[in-house]
Amino acid sequence: MDLNGKVAVVTGAGRGIGRAIAEKMAEYGARVVVADLAVDAVVRVAEDLTQDGHEAEAIAVDVTRASSVDRMVRGTVARFGQVDILVNNAGVIAAPGWEDRNRPNDRDWDVIYSVNVKGVAKTTDAAVRRMRQRQYGKIVNIASVAGRQGAPGNPPYNVSKAGVISLTQAYAQELASDNINVNAICPGLLWTPMWERIARRTIRLDESMGRISPRRAFERIVGERIPLGREQTPEDIGNLAVFLASDLAENITGQAINVNGGSRMD
Ligand SMILES: NC(=O)c1ccc[n+]([C@@H]2O[C@H](COP(=O)([O-])OP(=O)(O)OC[C@H]3O[C@@H](n4cnc5c(N)ncnc54)[C@H](O)[C@@H]3O)[C@@H](O)[C@H]2O)c1
Fold first, then answer.
1. Pick from 18, 2, 169, 166: nearest CA to 86
2. Which uninterrupted H or E stretch holds 57?
3. Residue with the nearest Cα to atom 25 of ligand 1?
4. pLDDT of 216-257, one tens digit each?
5. Closest CA relative to residue 144, chosen from 155, 158, 127
6. pTM (two decimals)
7. What fold does the segment set 7-189+233-259 form as a domain?
8. DSSP secondary-structure letter at 28?
9. Which stretch of DSSP H or E encloses residue 223?
10. For residue 195, which atom of ligand 1 is closest to its CA?
11. Which of 28, 113, 136, 157 is catalytic?
C-alpha cells in the first residue's frame, strides 16, 4: 500500500480510532491533516507525527458546522495544495450525561444525528468540491457494526450508523463518474474513550455485571460476542482505511466492510 504524494484529512483525529487512522496514513506516505473539535489533542498528534518525520497539520473543526468544515478544507489546500483522501471518523455515542440516563433523550437524538450523519454529509460535500476539480478522491466513512444490526439501549446511535452506510452508497453512486470512491468501515468493539462511556453505562444498567471496572466489563462483552475472542484495535481500522484510500482499492466503491472479529458476517 502506498500513499506517497497523497493528502489525507482525518476528522476526529485527536484520539482513539481517528488518531490511529492518521498515524497509519502517515506511515504509508500521506501528508496528513488531523482535524478535531479538541484542538489541543490534534496539535499534539500533529507534533508527534512531525517528530516521527511525517508531514502533518492540525486543524480545529466542528463537523456539525458547514463554515467550519469549509475552513478545514481551505486550510488543507493552503498547506498541502490538494485533498485526495477524506476519512469521516468524527462521531459521538450520545450527548453528555447519557451514561446516567436509562433511555436516550431528545438531545441524544439531535447530537448524534448532527455529528454522525449530517457531519459526514457536510464534510463530504466540502471535500468533494476540491476532489471533483482533480477528478480523483477516496472517501472512507467510519460506520459501525451498530449500523448493520439494531440493538437495545441506544437506538439513535444505531440509526445514525445505518445512515452512514446509506450515505456511503448514495455518495458512491453520485461520485463514481468523478472517479471518487466512497466506502465505509464497520468496526466492532474497540477500547477507546467512547467504549469506556458505553461500559460505564452498561455496568450501571446491567446488574449481572456486579462491581467491576469498565475495562473488565468491556473484556467480558468481547468474550461473549466476538468469535475470534479478541477486541479489535484502532490500528486494525487504520490498516483497512489505508487500503481503501490506496489505488489498490480503485475498483471498490459503495461498500461497508466489517472489522469485527466475526461478530456479524453480513
Ligand atoms: N470504539 C468503538 O468500539 C467503535 C465501534 C464502531 C464504530 N466506532 C466509530 O468510530 C469513530 C471513532 O470512535 P472512537 O471510539 O475513536 O471515539 P472517541 O470518542 O474516542 O473519539 C471521537 C473523536 O471525535 C471527535 N469529535 C466529536 N464530535 C466532533 C465534532 N462535532 N467535530 C469534530 N470532531 C468531533 C472527538 O473530539 C474525539 O476526538 C466514531 O465514528 C465511532 O462511532 C467506534
1. 18
2. strand 56-60
3. 12
4. 999 999 999 999 999 999 999 999 999 999 999 999 999 999
5. 158
6. 0.98
7. Rossmann fold (3.40.50)
8. T
9. helix 214-225
10. 1
11. 157
Please report, for the chain, the start and end positions of each structural domain, with discontinuous segments joined by +. 7-189+233-259
Q: Give the position, in ligand 1's atom list, of the atom nearest the Cα of 13.
A: 39
127 phi, psi to nearest 5 deg: -70, -35
CB atoms within 10 A of CB 117: 20
Q: Could you read off the pLDDT of 136-184 as tens digits, one per residue?
A: 999 999 999 999 999 999 999 999 999 999 999 999 999 999 999 999 9
Name the residue of 43, 92, 201 whose CB sits within 8 Å of the most ligand 1 atoms, as the mutation to test its pocket. Answer: 92
Evaluated on CA atoms 129, 185, 163, 195, the torsion sign reads negative
Lookup: cell for 18: 481517528
- What residues pair up with 57 in beta bridges, in sequence order? 33
Here the cell at position 73 is: 478544507
C-alpha–C-alpha distance, residues 8 and 196, integer Å: 28
pLDDT of residue 19: 98
pLDDT at 167: 98
Kindly give the distance from the C-alpha atom of residue 75 to the centroid of ligand 1, in angstroms, as a whole number: 22
What is the total residue count of the chain?
266
Residue 161: predicted pLDDT: 98
What pLDDT was estimated at residue 245?
98
Q: Does the annotation count 28 as an active-site position? A: no
pLDDT at position 242, please? 98
**C-alpha cell of 103?**
433511555
Residue 177 Cα, ligand 1 centroid: separation in angstroms? 30
C-alpha cell at 211: 462491581
Determine contact, residues 254/169, Cβ cutoff 8 Å.
yes
Q: Please give the mean pLDDT across all residues of the chain.
A: 97
Q: What is the DSSP secondary-structure string of 80-140?
A: HS---EEEE----SSSTTGGG-SS--HHHHHHHIIIIIIHHHHHHHHHHHHHHHHT-EEEE
